Amino acid sequence: MKIFLIGMPGSGKSVIGKQLALHFNLPFIDLDTAIESAEGKSVQDIFKENGEAHFRQIEAEQLRELSSSSTGFVMATGGGTPCFHKGMEVIKKNGVSVYLNVPLPELVKRNSKSSTRPLLQDGDIENKLAALLAVRATIYSSATFTIHGDQISIKALIALLRK
After folding, report:
1. From the centroid of its chain, how far is CA 58?
2. CA–CA separation, 137 vs 129, rounded Å?
3. Residue 89 exposed, middle or buried by CB count within 10 Å (0-12, 13-18, 19+)
4. Could you read off the pLDDT of 14-33 as tens digits, one per residue?
5. What are the DSSP E strand ranges found in the chain?
6. How confident is the model at residue 114 (pLDDT cuts 50, 70, 90)?
7. CA 117, CA 149: separation in Å to the nearest integer?
8. Which of 14, 70, 99, 127 is exposed most, by the fewest CB atoms within 10 A?
9. What is the rounded distance in angstroms from the CA atom of residue 106 to the CA atom of residue 51?
């Protein structure tokens, strides 16, 4: 089984992904970490030094490479992964996708604590998140499953995936 967690920055993909991987006894892959390993630098540095277009290209390459694996996994994708270079098509072709749909106020709260997300640097985080969500929501909502709420639980997610 290959499970791809998608959603906005701060939706809990990495936290929930690690728990799901443990439950299903599957490896956990954080796509941003895989990108950092491949490039030898942080996501922030890739954005700063090479720009978003370069980052999205590397992201797409890593997604395709990791998705083609014959072994199952749980992957926390980046917030933009499904939205660039046919990422959602790759995800749907290779496994089950789950959209962690967290309300905007909760996303603002979670992202206000972190300054490491390149697209949320400098300025009004709420407006930036709202603009990103407006663009990405349609793509996210095409996931195999959607789970709503700021209190997304591992128990609810396991029940959903067992259907």
Report:
1. 15
2. 11
3. exposed
4. 999 999 999 999 999 999 99
5. 2-6, 28-30, 73-76, 96-101, 145-148
6. low
7. 22
8. 70
9. 28
